[in-house]
Specification:
Distance between the termini of chain A: 31 Å
Largest sheet of chain B: 5 strands, mixed
Order of helices and strands of chain B: EEEEEEEEE
Order of helices and strands of chain A: EEEEEEEEEEE
Helix content of chain A: under 10%
Shape of chain B: globular
Number of helices of chain B: 0
Low-confidence stretches of chain A: none
Radius of gyration of chain A: 13 Å
Distance between the termini of chain B: 39 Å
Radius of gyration of chain B: 14 Å
Number of strands of chain A: 11
Strand order of the largest sheet of chain B: 1-9-8-3-4
Number of strands of chain B: 9
Strand content of chain B: over 45%
Oligomer: heterodimer
Structural class of chain A: mainly beta
């Protein structure tokens, strides 16, 4: 158990819908990272927040957005869902802003299925 | 940002030593080399990190030659439970706007 929690574990929805994935980092960690993992794309970095502020941005689609709240939990919002958005979504956390001194701890993931 | 190249897949048998090599030709002077392990249906977990020469912990060893253009993750006497995807990352010392690049990793299958 990494100490990072993600809800829900599974999510099944229809195309065009909007969903929200939630992540609670390890106690004391200030950074939250979001990743998407699909069979054809591997593990792709989406976005990082550090202490409430956006820190780094990867190939995150405009239909996707995220935020980190004052209690440091984070939410990833996915809208106008398409079949291709079906994937495992991981959240990770680290103590600091990132880099080699900040090991990332990953949550168990949310499996999103878009029908 | 230093790009990494590693084999897509490897096969081994229980009890053998497995070496996974990662190429990172344009690694920056202060970058570290970090490896993560991902079991099926789980999130990745950090296993080892190094800057130069050799690092060893209870899980693996990491060998980094003097030019640092490649690194080798060594798993001694693998078991079936070592079947996983292994990711090699080049990581700067501080975050900045660092983009973690995991890619597809190396899928290791250990056979009985």
């Amino acid at each position: 158990d990494s100490g990072v929690t993600q809800t829900p574990k599974h999510l099944i929805t229809a195309t065009g819908q909007r969903v929200t994935l939630r992540c609670s980092p390890r106690s004391g960690d200030l950074s939250v990272y979001w990743y998407q993992q699909s069979l054809d794309q591997g593990l792709q970095f989406l976005i990082q927040y550090y202490n409430g502020e956006e820190r780094a941005k990867g190939n995150i689609l405009e239909r996707f957005s995220a935020q980190q709240f004052p209690d440091l939990h984070s939410e990833l919002n996915l809208s106008s869902l398409e079949l291709g958005d079906s994937a495992l979504y991981f959240c990770a956390s680290s103590v600091g802003a990132g880099g080699s001194y900040n090991e990332q701890f990953f949550g168990p993931g949310t499996r999103l299925t878009v029908l | 940002l230093a790009k990494t190249t590693q084999p897509i897949s490897m096969d081994s048998y229980e009890g053998q030593e497995v070496n996974i090599t990662c190429s990172h030709n344009n690694i920056a002077t202060n970058d570290y080399i970090t490896w993560y392990q991902q079991f099926p249906s789980q999130g990745p977990r950090f296993i080892i990190q190094g800057y130069k020469t050799k690092v060893t912990n209870e899980v693996a060893s990491l060998f980094i030659p003097a030019d640092r253009k490649s690194s080798t993750l060594s798993l001694p006497r693998v078991s079936l439970s070592d079947t996983a995807v292994y990711y090699c990352l080049v990581v700067p010392p501080t975050g900045g706007s660092y983009i973690p690049t995991f890619g597809r990793g190396t899928s290791l299958i250990v056979h009985p």
